[in-house]
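Pasting as-is:
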Amino acid sequence: VSGGVSGGVSGGVSGDAAPARPRAALPSPDGSAGATTPDSGGAAAGPDPDCTVPATVTLELEPAAMTRVSVNAPCHAGEVAELAYEGLRFALPLDAQGAGSLAVPGFRGASEAMLGLGGREAREFTIPFREIERIDRVAVVWETPDAAEAPGAPALHAFEFGARPGTPGHVSPAEPRSFETVRRTGGGWLAAYEPAHGKGRRIEVYSFWRRFGGPSGVVRLGLDPAAGAGDCAGAAAGAADYRVLRMTGGRLERPRLGRIAPRDCTVLAGAGGPEGARDPGRSAGRSSGRFIDAAVDDLVVRRR
């Protein structure tokens, strides 16, 4: 669909998505450059200023409340697009032909999204998600780019049903699992999205797939403030602000804010309070070894 969105969705659901709504370009986001998530495919030196080919977006439904967003924007070859919805910002690098795709997580049955292209063009459209009622999901969005992207930046960990660090129920960046590994039994997996060239934010997402008769109970979530650094003294300097999005059974809760000081491994203001209630002078509570439990509330998985 020229200049819009095509709805080629999979899984026995088909039909055209709502047409894209062109509008003014997104403001340039702040933040430093980070690692890309998809391969840039040998990006071109820059877009052709005389190009007039409109950008197109294709949406493909995937299992476990994921939808793949594919972009074809020849006039923006070699650039990094930015996809934004529900307060999340994802970097989407485009290759030398202006093509790129990214599978993104859902927090509602459908979300209003905006795709920013090169600071000169933007499109609005609706992203649908399926099987949302079978997913419990928590996302940690790092709002302080310098601290969150530095070596030794904090990282999200999940400890399922009483698991200890290093045991099979410990889901971590080193052992993230995938949807395919838990599809038959139920369970959780981690996914991470990285910023690129000032676009997007670092986002870590823990998703739990609920099966009929599958496991249930408490999943303890925590942040490792010294991920990759070995100890707290080697962690990224300075405080890092983060935001927590939580969805259970298709219901998105109000975002919560927090701040972590990686150097001394303390939480300065917990994610347990409502957005806007940050108190930089108050400690949020407990830690367990090197993992700060109070930084992200536990996830209660209910039996289907």
